[in-house]
Amino acid sequence: MKLNKDLVLREVGGEYMIVNPFSDTVDMTQVYSLNETAAWLWQQMEGKEFTVADLVAVLCEEYEVDTETATADLTELCQQWIAAGLAQE
Amino acid sequence: MHLTIGPITCSIEGLTEEEIPLNSRQFQTEGQEADICYTFHEVEELPAPDEHWARIFERPDIQVFQHGALEARKLAVGNMQAAYALYQERDERTIDIYYLNTIKSQLLIDTIFVSCLALERHFAKKDAYILHCCFTHHHGQAILFSGPSGIGKSTHAELWCRHIENTHVVNGDRCLIYKDKEGRYWAGAWPVCGSSQICLTEAYPLKAIVFMGQAPHNEVVPVRPMQLFKQLSSQVTINWWNKTQAGQALDSLQHMLGKVNMCNYACNLTPEAPKYLYNYLREKEWIS
After folding, report:
1. Are A34 and A17 in contact (CB under 8 A)?
2. Contacts of B230 in chain A (CB under 8 A)
3. What is the pTM of this model?
């Protein structure tokens, strides 16, 4: 999968948001928020083709988390990103 | 004829003073060099941008075309069948505006006239932004009540005028926010004022932006910076189709968030509502 290249990750006061400047109706009150880990993963995958396994690999390298938990969490995260139009399969 | 709005002076050719709207006319100045030169052309039929222009964005009220760094816009009321003007940049500071002869009288409406100028695009280059708010003056200071339409911005400002001395509304619907050479933020006049009919050409140091909400009891609601940033950027005019400008705008607003005092205020319509907020702003030393 690949992240939607039009999207911009932005950090404000320790929180993260994804803005799509090309959306016809940008509603800033409804923009997608990311937690710190998801934002970090986003930065790792910007401009790249990747799989859930790639995300699991970088996450397990950076954080103390077991592969099984990471795979379950990141599968769900990828589904959320695709459903919200942030990434394409 | 020259109009000076905040940090920008523009020259207007092709229209006489009587052919521009009353509020916009208040911004007339003499002797200043123009940053932007607009020439209005009355036409029977709007020209179409030639093949060099690529259409990059479309909405029922606007089509945007791009040619390198230059922009053209076809403006309409409601849908493109009712397009009334074409804004087309010759270079960064020279702009032609073609308008249908049938709508000439409507150019006397500030919203129509100002839309033709695409000013927010030029203000963005000067780090200046238009905020949807009720721009209120208190004792030489600007307090901006912002939020979505119908939330009670004007009503709350009226309560301030009635119950807090030395207060008046400068613009009931919009305000231009810009920085001076020392980097201080100012709230300045804007020629469009919605249904409020209040449109004064005054500018004051910007002391606070208050995002309004409705509640049975008056309370300044604690919110995180991200929430304030979302509220601020949703009430500022941003040309989202221009990715570079949109990014710069969000950077600028994020900078503003760190420099200008902002809060969320949920309140009712009693005389206590302005007094509660006034005391809060004084206690915080946001206003004097």
Report:
1. yes
2. 17, 28-29, 31
3. 0.91
